[in-house]
Specification:
single chain; two-stranded parallel ribbon; 6 strands
Length: 125
């Protein structure tokens, strides 16, 4: 197998594959942006949408982020916990766009329902 050390990289070109691809390794590319709108635009240009997070002290920025980000799991000011941003068995985990295949998040309280078959029954005696 392969082992990848946790890595933080900055100043990569915006179109660099390390800024575009889902890597599934402990790697983050950091970029300077002028505004939240620019950050959201850059993030949403990706063909993937698994997770996204923001750190902000401004509640309006957090609301804007949650309403605009195109990701299946979004979180704000989360410093600990599951590295994916989701708590398996507590909230659903699934990506949007090319990060998912069913449009349904796994592991959440309503996930199992998609596999059930409904039947209405009426019995008059």
């Amino acid at each position: 197998g392969h082992f990848v050390m946790p890595t933080v990289v900055d100043r990569l070109p915006v179109d660099h594959r390390l800024c575009r691809d889902e890597l599934f390794v402990p790697f983050v590319a950091v970029a300077d942006v002028e505004s939240l709108d620019e950050a959201l635009s850059r993030a949403n240009r990706s063909e993937f949408g698994l997770t996204a997070g923001i750190f902000s002290e401004d509640p309006e920025e957090v609301r804007t982020f949650f309403s605009a980000i195109e990701a299946g799991v979004a979180y704000a000011n989360r410093r600990g916990g599951a590295t994916t941003g989701a708590w398996p068995g507590v909230n659903s985990f699934g990506g949007w766009k090319a990060s998912g295949s069913s449009g349904r998040g796994a592991g959440g309280p309503y996930y199992v329902q998609q596999f059930l078959r409904e039947q209405s029954q009426t019995w008059v005696e």
